[in-house]
Amino acid sequence: MDKVIRILKSFNFNESEAKAYITLFQHGPCSGYELSKMSGISRSKIYNILESLFQKGYVSNTQDGKVLLYRSEPIEHISRLIKTSVEDGLDMLQESMSNFEKTIDSEQIWNIKGYENIINKCIDLIESSKKEILIQVWSDDLTDRLEEIIVKKQKELGRVLVIIYDSEDNYNTKIKKFYKHGFEKNKIADTGSRWITITIDSEEMLHASIKNYNVAKGIYTKNKGMVFFANEYVKHDAYCLRLIDALGDKVKDVFGENMEGIRDVFAIN
């Protein structure tokens, strides 16, 4: 029950409301007195709690003789109410915020922490792009939504460069045009983590290091030097991959089966 209570509290239930709703859901219609005994909520509080849930549309009631009975509404109904409320609230927020004058973004470098926050920022950046997108991403981090928006932008813009890393060498994706990077085990050995690099319209960039789904941090900036560096980094990766694809076995003859020789950048003749 504790987990469900935490979830309901995130949707504007208080602890007692969540406990009362779950108890009704589990045991079916009952009076306030019976619900008080089953839930452990005092009789002095239970009727105010039930009235609050009734006003929100989360429970309904009926008169059964002298007793007022309550029942929980189906969870699907609750979900629709919450979703509608959230969407209406977000629409009002966007409309209200649009009336404020927006300050011009500086070229400072901003930190981002948390896997979901990083993925959501990637999606926001890609959705806002107008001209071109350059992206390096591991298949582990190609969430359905991220993959979907990349596919959409490839159709809209055309100029979308995607380089995918896949430690299992599967490259199973709905993205039609992308470079398979290879050398993933070497990359993980070098860095100890996955990463995402994105630039959009040569104006904004994001780079994130992802050790696992619990440990992820990144940076975002409009700094012209950083954006240029990230752009060139992704492009040069693509240049090398095109050369390797074009030369095929000739490259392996020179640098080895696993291309280990090409990684020694200090070995200049």
Commentary on this structure:
The chain is built from ten helices and ten strands. The chain has 269 residues and is of the alpha+beta class. It has two domains: 76 residues, Winged helix-like DNA-binding domain superfamily/Winged helix DNA-binding domain (Arc Repressor Mutant, subunit A), CATH 1.10.10; 155 residues, Endonuclease, Chain A (2-Layer Sandwich). The strands form two sheets. A seven-stranded mixed beta sheet has the order 4-10-9-8-5-6-7, sandwiched between helices. α3 crosses α4. The mean pLDDT is 89.
User: What's the CATH topology label of the largest domain?
Assistant: Endonuclease, Chain A
Q: pLDDT under 50 segments (min length 5)? A: none
The helix/strand series, from N terminus to C terminus, equals HHEHHEEHEHEHEEHEEEHH
Q: What general outline do the C-alpha atoms trace?
A: elongated
Distance between the termini: 68 Å
Helix content: 40-55%
* Alpha-beta content class: alpha+beta
Overall pLDDT: 89
Briefly characterize the structure:
This is TrmB family transcriptional regulator. This protein has helices at 2-9, 15-27, 32-39, 43-56, 75-97, 115-128, 144-157, 184-191, 224-247, 249-255, and strands at residues 30-31, 59-64, 67-72, 109-113, 133-138, 160-165, 179-180, 194-200, 204-212, 215-221.
What is the strand and helix layout of this fold?
Blueprint: H1 2-9, H2 15-27, E1 30-31, H3 32-39, H4 43-56, E2 59-64, E3 67-72, H5 75-97, E4 109-113, H6 115-128, E5 133-138, H7 144-157, E6 160-165, E7 179-180, H8 184-191, E8 194-200, E9 204-212, E10 215-221, H9 224-247, H10 249-255
Parallel strand pairs: 5-6, 6-7
Antiparallel strand pairs: 1-3, 2-3, 4-10, 5-8, 8-9, 9-10
